[in-house]
Amino acid sequence: MTTTSGRIPTAATLDAGRPPVVSPEAWEAARQQLLTKEKAMTRARDALAAERRRMPWTPVRADYAFAGPAGPARLIDLFEGRRQLIVYRAFYEPGVFGWPERACRGCSLVADQVAHVAHLNARDTTLAFVSRAPQADIAGLKARMGWRMPWYTITDSFDADFGVDEWHGTNVFIRDGGRVFRTYFLNNRGDEQMGGTWNYLDITPLGRQEAWEDSPPGYPQTPTYKWWNWHDSYVDGAAPDQRWVEVSDAGEAAFRKADEGARG
Description:
Blueprint (H helix, E strand, L loop, with lengths): L10 H4 L9 H29 L5 E2 L5 E4 L2 E4 H4 L5 E6 L15 H9 L4 H4 L3 E7 L3 H11 L5 E4 L3 H4 L7 E8 L2 E9 L9 H6 L39 H22 L1
Parallel strand pairs: 4-5, 5-6
Antiparallel strand pairs: 1-8, 2-3, 2-6, 4-7, 7-8
């Protein structure tokens, strides 16, 4: 909430619309009432993600070209050998407010929210940013802002062809061998929720790849929690740490017991 001047309102200006002050018991009752709606929203979000995993795919027929830190790259190279690719179009180029010291403020806010990409990588998913700025400028911007995601330079019509030439947006792709398919796209208000590992995985065709998800037959799925790791400790093909398996099993059992008690 802001005033017409754009300033954050002081506490005094909130008095008229402030909610009532109640006892801890009344507060807990209100929380439980809201929690019922929040759980319904969570279930609806899960169902929507399940439907998204069943979206049709459309083939990418052009061999799009980019410039990267290691030189020229094609769209399939952006996957970095993984099966899924999420591409965010960030506005950092001549003509953007702040250039060349800064990228678009909104895109910079998105970049600031990106969680450590190792967790996405562990789910066979790569996140990449793309812009029209030269690589030297991108490297300097990333170093100054502390951003670590891969970031490539658009050199052809990729942005126009995928709906991100005049505004930001996130495209999702999957590869099957040497073939690349577009599976999903979001922009505008949809982009503002991006940044977290789970939100990114929920827009991919394979999802979180956990056993509880409603996914088509044959999709990769592993036991919930077991694949989680410290971001510097993932090892491709390694079995889950046994101690973590025991800890997460105990946590799941406690959650189930608490839920059963709440249902009485």
